[in-house]
Design goal:
The chain is of the alpha+beta class. It folds into two domains: 104 residues; 96 residues. The protein contains five helices and twelve strands. The protein starts with a strand and ends with a strand.
Amino acid sequence: MEISGFPQTEPCLSARPYRLMVVELTDVCRRRSPDKPNLLVMKTQSPPRSRFQYLLRNPSTKWYSGYISQLREDLVDNRLLTSATEAEIELRDLVRQLSAEGYTVNRDSRIWSVYVIELDSRHIDNPGKGYIYVGETSKPHVTRLKEHLTRKRNKKGRLYSSIVAKYGKCLRPELAPTSNRFFDKESSRIAEASWANHLRNIGYTVEGGH
């Protein structure tokens, strides 16, 4: 069973402590960074080396079965965690940390980037160099533009900006930052705000940018 996308160990009724473990995989999916391999990050109530040997000897229907390469003890603090709740919190923190470093963790191959959309400026008295919208996304930019223009929604709510839905025209890739690959959403949001301010400072009228 998997919870929130993270592999879980088998149920255990004992009071044994938990540890986190990191396993390097062969390329089960596209690498986010060429020099950073795919990783399996999980919690275990067995010693990580024993658990690793078990995974090697016992192929299963798990998504990582057949891709096990080596145990990466260098990427994790092997301290004992006294409860499942503490282990889950530490697991999430470790996944975020390794993801931010560019590793492809538990098949999450998302890469975020900043995009720029040209807006219709006919209702703006002085648009300066141009009227634009700055956003960030882990999706292809053309997909994101379409979501705005078609007023896309999901179960959580709308996926579009009302400004872009009303005035959006086309992507302006030449106005996006040249260094434009981010391995976590927080870094992407910071870059989005910084780039929006940069474009304002050089004369554009900018929407978005959080």
